[in-house]
Design brief:
The chain is built from seven helices and seven strands. The chain has 183 residues and is of the alpha/beta class. It has a single domain, classed as Vaccinia Virus protein VP39 (Rossmann fold, 3-Layer(aba) Sandwich), CATH 3.40.50. Strands 3-2-1-4-5-7-6 form a seven-stranded mixed sheet. Helix 3 packs across helix 4. It starts with a helix and ends with a strand. S-adenosylmethionine binds next to helix 2, helix 4 and strand 2.
Length: 183
Amino acid sequence: MSFPLFMWQLVRHPKTISAIAPSSKRLALQMVSEITPETGRVVEIGAGTGVITRQILAAGVKPEDLSIVEMNPKFCRALKVRFPDCNVLEMDAQALGSLPLENVGMVISGLPLLSIPEPVQQNIIDGAFALMVKGGKYVQFTYGPKPPIAPEVRAANGLEWRMLKKVWLNLPPAMPYVFSQKS
Ligand SMILES: C[S@@+](CC[C@H](N)C(=O)[O-])C[C@H]1O[C@@H](n2cnc3c(N)ncnc32)[C@H](O)[C@@H]1O
């Protein structure tokens, strides 16, 4: 059911989805590879049909410690059915900074960040770092050759970054990055 739902929503909302297929399991595994027992609460943004969500839970995050942010109502309905014990929030990720959540150690993003206008990108990244504890990590993949957060937005938040392993078995191949604030 996930794939037809994804493709149908892609036809209806190409700008907000901006991907030709859901992420592969290999990419989802890379996206969760920084999770440890000390991570604390995790917030996933742009969850789509939940391919990364499933791996976040498999990595050991308890359902009650995972909040899922998605703005597409059809995806939200499916996510609530698939992950009934998680906190599914139908909202724009630009409002991340106002969420009443504590001890958030990681934000994992499936958003098509580079196709999002820069002011919107700025709101999302500002909100993510305002929400997280000191030392929090923001994980984001990209299909392109450059870091998936615009240079101005990185500078405004004092971000440094690392690349994880490139995932060739994904359509198209993708590179996950981890961003954190310089100490
Ligand atoms: C490329 S899909 C990724 C879906 C899934 N995470 C995956 O990797 O297959 C991007 C998702 O981000 C959602 N999205 C786009 N802009 C958003 C925003 N500003 N706030 C919340 N969700 C957003 C879309 O509705 C879509 O589900």
